[in-house]
Design goal:
Blueprint lengths: L25 E2 L3 H7 L3 E20 L7 H4 E19 L3 E8 L9 E7 L6 E11 L9 E13 L2 E10 L6
Antiparallel strand pairs: 1-2, 2-3, 3-4, 4-5, 5-6, 6-7, 7-8
Length: 174
């Protein structure tokens, strides 16, 4: 299924249109929104797969030593699997990435990140929320990887400040 308007074309030729899925881009006509996010365009592209398995199992045992109620056993089974991948841009400065699966072996395999990137002359250079990292170049103090929290980078003149508040979601062994 193709969404949006198109001109008549030969069906054997590939289309030059870039279709972004079921959620069309939104344009916000607000000067404040453009000042914060760099533009008025909101483009979020979800890709979600949901598998629901519902079953009913009824067993009947003919055992005279059991009551009639105990001879009948009915069970309802419900299983679900959800795979979700969402990529989005809000303006030019805010990016959203989400990868989530209910069948992952470890919780840290599910990734979520919101990232704000300021312009070169902004005080706030970047803000990251969700899965963040703090790589450090030295060997004396090691940086944290696989962190869940918020990290911000700011610049005041020639001074750069990086602040992080996070929780480590993995353990390192030496």
């Amino acid at each position: 299924a193709q969404l949006g308007s198109s001109t008549s074309r030969n069906p054997t030729q590939p289309s030059s249109q870039n279709l972004s899925g079921l959620v069309p881009p939104i344009n916000v006509n607000s000067e404040l929104f453009r000042d914060i996010f760099g533009s008025g365009r909101v483009d979020i592209r979800p890709n979600i797969n949901v598998l629901l398995d519902l079953s009913l199992r009824s067993n009947r045992m003919r055992n005279p030593s059991l009551t009639i109620r105990q001879q009948r056993n009915t069970n309802l089974a419900f299983n679900q699997q959800i795979q979700m991948n969402v990529v989005g841009n809000i303006g030019e400065k805010l990016k959203l990435r989400l990868n989530w699966d209910t069948q992952t072996s470890f919780n840290f395999e599910n990734q979520f990140k919101i990232e704000y990137q300021g312009y070169e002359d902004d005080i706030i250079k970047s803000i990251e929320a969700g899965n963040v990292g703090l790589p450090l170049g030295g060997t004396l103090i090691t940086g944290g990887q696989n962190l869940w929290g918020i990290k911000t980078r700011m610049q005041f003149g020639s001074i750069f400040v990086t602040a992080i508040a996070s929780q480590q979601r993995s353990k390192s062994q030496e």
